[in-house]
Design goal:
single chain, 324 residues, DHBP synthase, four-stranded parallel β-sheet, globular
Length: 324
């Protein structure tokens, strides 16, 4: 199979929207990471996602829709979902709600709930409008590997496994959406921190619970994606530090969270110049992929400062990507 990257011209968008209607796979840009999309109501199409990614069947998919009205058709809606949707959609927030029967079991790994969101990326939104179908779209990479934030990342990982990638440029957020469990709206819980900050969600609906420390065993069905203890991982061993040691081994890459007054070197890198969490989020997966393609024996990575707005999201991704 030849994997081709398409420019987002009107002709190409119509062509690839039609392929999605036919039950084929297309990798699409979102504001978070690139997603591998298929018709969420087509069982065979969704099976193709699991095959292309080597994804276990007990890891559910997120369904992307164009409007809140479409989300309501797929779920059992509630007042908390309404508040969050009004505030944060389109955007990097995924809601887990009881599902309606129209959603195939393969999408939800047999569970009675489904994860839904409205993406903000204009290309993904155009595709949703053109194909007229809800789209299941996990990250467009082999299961548990570093998520892709450019079209080339997708091709590097899935070349020969899928036909088409739409190039929408680099993702603006760079990490996956926040997932919140609203099955019991009186007790909303964050299942995965992400591109919508917990502080902003709390300001909208009040105090939240959290399951971000919960890591279900590999054979147990997770309620939502991104909850496994090993995820987003480079092949090169990744070691985390609260304080990064000075570079002392030329075969090891050292990644400071912020550059500060440090100078860059052959094996010294950083996620952000000033310590900005949003910038670090955009750079994390891109830098890990770049280092993983090098000849480094290990990657040593400094954690963000506790208390920063992006701490929970960055710490979650770093922890799941790490060797120790």
């Amino acid at each position: 199979m030849i994997t081709r990257i398409y420019r987002p011209t009107p002709h190409n968008l119509k062509l690839l929207a039609n392929r999605l209607r036919q039950g084929r796979l297309v990798a699409l840009p979102t504001e978070t990471v690139y997603g591998l999309a298929a018709d969420a109501l087509n069982v065979k199409a969704c099976e193709s996602i699991f095959t292309a990614k080597d994804r276990p069947s007990n890891d559910p998919l997120i369904v992307h829709v164009r409007t809140k009205a479409e989300a309501k058709k797929l779920t059992v809606w509630n007042d908390v979902a309404e508040k969050l949707a009004r505030k944060f959609w389109p955007g990097p927030l995924t809601l887990v709600l009881p599902k309606n029967e129209i959603i195939p079991d393969i999408v939800t790994s047999g569970m009675p709930s489904v994860a839904v969101r409205i993406p903000a990326h204009p290309i993904f939104r155009q595709i949703l409008e053109l194909c007229g179908r809800p789209l299941a779209a996990p990250s467009a990479n082999p299961f548990s590997y570093i998520s892709p934030t450019t079209a080339q990342h997708v091709k590097d990982s899935l070349n020969g496994r899928i036909e088409a990638i739409i190039d929408g440029g680099a993702c603006k957020v760079g990490l996956e959406s926040t997932i919140i469990d609203l099955r019991y709206p009186e007790k909303p819980q964050i299942l995965r921190p992400g591109g919508t900050l917990e502080s902003d969600i709390s300001a909208c609906i009040g105090r939240l619970g959290s399951m971000t420390g919960f890591k279900p065993p590999a054979k147990i069905t997770a309620l939502a994606p991104g909850q496994r203890s090993k995820h987003y991982s480079p092949k090169t061993p990744l070691i985390l530090h609260h304080t990064l040691p000075e570079p002392h081994n030329d075969e090891v890459a050292y990644v400071n969270f912020a550059q500060g007054t440090r100078s860059s070197g052959r094996n010294r890198f950083y996620l952000t110049e000033s310590g900005d969490g949003a910038e670090a989020a955009r750079e994390l997966f891109k830098l890990l992929r770049s280092l993983d393609q090098g000849s480094w024996k290990e990657i040593h990575l400094e954690l963000p400062l506790l208390g920063s707005a992006w701490y929970a999201c960055l710490y979650d991704r770093m922890l799941r990507a790490s060797t120790r």
